[in-house]
Structure formats: C-alpha cells, structure tokens
Specification:
Elements lengths: L1 E3 L7 H16 L10 H13 L11 H20 L34 E2 L4 E2 L39 H9 L16 H6 L15 H9 L13 H19 L49 E3 L8
Parallel strand pairs: 1-4
Antiparallel strand pairs: 2-3
Helix pairs in contact: 1-3, 3-7, 6-7
Length: 309
C-alpha cells in the first residue's frame, strides 16, 4: 500500500523524489493523447471535463469520486518513474500567513516554489520556475495566457480555508443532496467543493474549501488548466483525504449519492467520464461505487486510524 503523507512531514529526500517525478512526467514521458507529454494528458482531461455542460468532474456528485480516480492514475504514473513516490497532501487550514510562507509551507524553493513576482505574477523560484527550462505551460485556457507558471497569493481572497469551515463540511450527515449540482445547499460534496449555494461564487459570497484554495493562490490555479500548477495535486489530495475522514465520522451514511437522478457519469454505478472522442488517456471503466474505499485502490493516509497492511 502507498502511504500519502502530510507534505509538511516529508523528508528532504521525499520532496526531491516527488518533484523529480513531476519533472520527468512533464518532460520525458510520452503522451497517450498526442500531446507534448504524459503530464499534459492530465491537463487536457481536466480542461475537457470543465468545457462541457454538465461537467464530468465539477459542480456535481462525482466531484470527489472523479478526482479520486484521476489522482490515482496520476500517482501510478509517478510510481512508474519512482516507485517510492506518492502524492502528498497540503493541510491548508493550519499555520496560515498571507505571504504564503509559514512553518511547514509547501511554497519553498526546494518544493513547490514561491509566489509570483510583480508585475506579471510570474513564479521565479523553485523547480517549476520557467527559467529552469523544465516547466513550460503547453496547454492553456486561452492562447494569450503566459507560457510560465503564475501565482498571486491572497489577492482574490485574503485567507485560505479555515478549520471552522472545514468542520461544517465534515459535520454534514449526507454525501450530497438534490438537485445534485452547484445549486445544492448542503451535503459534503457541495461544501468540500466550495459552492455552498447557487452561483460562482453565489451572491458574491467568497468561495470555500477546495475552490477557495484555487482562488487564494490565483494565477494559473484560477483556470481550467490549473493542473499546470503542481500545487493542484496537493490540494486535491487533501480534499480526497477529507472524504475518507467524513466516511469514518459518519459510518452509517451512504458513502456516495445519488444512485440515480443526476447527470450521466454522476450516479453511483455510472461509468465516470474522462474523455470524449480522440485517444483515451487510459483504459477505464471506473464508477463512483468502485472508488468509495480508497484502501481498495491501493493507498492510505497517515491520518487513517488503522493502516491497511
């Protein structure tokens, strides 16, 4: 079983191994979809998932299940490069600072790199700086977007998600509620994703949890191609961990809803959608029902109460 750890507890060697695997996937592993690299396959799939209505992966029940499967495929690709690597999670509710720098911050020169610099928010530090020659953005939301990674910490919302907002989500007694989209006003999925009520964000209400992390970081993380910022994986890994925690807190609750009534790809036994036309990024017949148990997928978290040896 692969152990996913809090990024603040990674050793220097573990950080280096994770970063190096990302760089190899980005620069040297061939695409399965005719793109520049295998890393770009994931950027393309995520962008495609957000360009259709209803979306495959967002604003609906499959948000957590779809990204769980998505992360696992990505992790397995990293492990083909280095079997010791797993995706770490970023527990963003603790040790916050508007500059992005605090004890245990992922935004260090030896890991995720720092904030963007004015006037263009370009990230000039760390392994994903454009100047390294190893992190060019090949896929972009718009042709005029920069080829380099950008960040703008705290400009769009002043703070990262807080523990009280996370606790509200974890206190939800059901996974999701009708009408099974961004208009749902309760349920774990809606609150973890960050909509809370209808809109984007609703009625000028600041986004929460997953969405808030994207907005706080800003820059590249604001777009459909947000995977171009590697911090994407650490954010989603933490969201995935919260689903696992919620299941432990609510052992009698249905782990996924609905069984039916949601758009195609979002019902319990639907085949989730990862591509439509063109080469498939991976052969897959996964369903939400098939991914509710993360241990069965081959990984566990350092916060799981009993390691699944």
């Amino acid at each position: 079983m692969g152990l996913r750890k809090n990024q603040r507890n990674l050793t220097a060697a573990e950080k280096t191994a994770f970063v190096n695997a990302l760089l190899v996937l980005k620069n040297y592993v061939p695409s399965h979809m005719g793109l520049a690299s295998r890393y770009d396959d994931y950027v393309q799939v995520h962008m495609n998932s957000m360009m259709v209505v209803p979306g495959w992966a967002h604003r609906g029940p499959a948000f957590l299940a779809w990204h769980r499967e998505f992360l696992r495929h990505f992790e397995l690709d990293l492990q083909n490069i280095d079997p010791t690597v797993t995706i770490p999670y970023w527990e963003w509710t603790i040790n916050q600072d508007p500059t992005g720098f605090w004890p245990g911050s992922p935004f260090t020169d030896d890991f995720m790199g720092g904030n963007g610099d004015p006037p263009n928010s370009k990230v000039n530090s760390g392994p994903f700086a454009f100047s390294t020659g190893y992190w060019k953005l090949n896929l972009k939301d718009n042709p005029g977007d920069p080829d380099y990674l950008t960040r703008d910490f705290g400009t769009n919302v002043p703070t990262l998600p807080t523990m009280d907002k996370l606790q509200v989500a974890l206190n939800e007694g059901v996974y999701d509620v009708s009408p099974w989209n961004a208009a749902s006003t309760s349920g774990l999925r809606n609150r973890l994703e960050g909509w809370i009520t209808n809109g984007n964000p609703p009625n000028n209400t600041p986004p929460q949890l997953h969405n808030r992390v994207h907005v706080w970081i800003g820059g590249t993380m604001l777009g459909m191609t947000s995977l171009n910022d590697p911090i994407f994986w650490l954010n989603h890994c933490n969201i995935d961990r919260q689903w696992a925690i919620w299941q432990l807190l609510h052992p009698t609750a249905q782990k996924y809803l609905p069984v039916s009534g949601a758009p195609t790809g979002h019902n319990l036994n639907d085949k989730m959608i990862f591509f439509s036309g063109g080469p498939a990024p991976w052969p897959d017949t996964s369903t939400p029902a098939g991914v509710v148990n993360h241990h069965a997928l081959g990984y566990w978290y350092d916060t799981d109460p009993t390691p699944p040896y």
